[in-house]
Amino acid sequence: MIALYATLAAGLGAIIGSFLNVVAHRIPRDEPLGLFRKTRSYCPSCKAGIRWFDNIPLVSYVLLLGKCRACGWRIPVRYPLVESCCAALFLLAVLRVDALGWTPAWLAFAVTAAFAAICLAATAIDFEHKILPDELTLRAGPVVAAAGALFIPAIHGTQLFGHDLVPTFKPGLASLIVGVAGAAAGAGIIGAIRWVGTLIARREAMGLGDVKFMAMCGLLLGPWGTVLAIMVAMVGGSVLGLLIWAVTRNREIPFGPFLAMGALAVLFYGPAIDHLIFVTYPAWVRGG
Ligand SMILES: [Zn+2]
């Protein structure tokens, strides 16, 4: 049964990924998303309408050899990349919700998949435009995160310093308050880093978008998950940032994608990451 759900989720992920490409193109340009009114897909280069058979996620990109049928415009790699990443994330969401036993499973899948989609859209937009738009961090994100915080308390994390986190809250107001504490932690920590970084670098070290983004993540992850996610983002950002700089000499690497990566890692593998940082690593340092 899980194999069937996994396959369906991957297919749905590819379709949502195709929509995220529209989001990533239109939000930074203040174009309407056409969520409620049918707006036709069009080629960003020649504005020719895209017919349905040229609009199938991943498949059409391969069949068209990555070019617009009308004008030959080279479709950016972002399109198939976001579609395949979204398919993979939706697949992961099904498998992790099943493995972690989060209930109700359909809601846990809806929340984790939607959160992953928002993180992916934020990553695509931040890489290209160096912004994290309010549409994601203040509107879509908080709605999804609040649903998770209200109804799936275990989503706030179950491990702290390698110990079981007690008490485990029931769904409802108490669980939502833990989420709000997480949002405050996210905004507070990133806000503090931004303030210190700006003082040292004497220019804006991190955008206000990063603060809003991490507040949104904190609402879902809870305070402890938020701290873990920021730790993962800093380690990942340092290592990958150095690699990107070494290859491209690009110093202007946005931090949003690393925050998104950290948040997703903790959402799906929080207990394992907690164990790695606070049990396995200290034991290894002590030579145990
Ligand atoms: Zn075209």
Describe it for me?
- The chain is mainly alpha-helical.
- It has two domains: 91 residues, no CATH class; 188 residues, no CATH class.
- 68% of the residues lie in helices and 1% in strands.
- It is built from eight helices and two strands.
- A two-stranded antiparallel ribbon has the order 1-2.
- Strand 1 and strand 2 form a beta hairpin.
- Helix 3 packs antiparallel against helix 4, helix 5 crosses helix 7 and helix 6 crosses helix 7.
- The mean pLDDT is 91.
- Bound molecules: zinc ion (ZN).
- The site of zinc ion (ZN) has 8 residues, from loops.
State the domain count: 2
Largest sheet: 2 strands, antiparallel
Strand order of the largest sheet: 1-2
| First-last Cα distance | 42 Å
Radius of gyration: 20 Å
Approximate shape? globular
Count, helices: 8
Succession of helices and strands: HHHHHEEHHH
Query: What compounds are bound to the protein?
Result: zinc ion
Unreliable segments of 5+ consecutive residues: none
Structural class: mainly alpha
Q: What percent of residues adopt helix (DSSP H or I)?
A: 55-70%
Strand content: under 5%
**Strands, count:** 2
**Average pLDDT over all residues:** 91
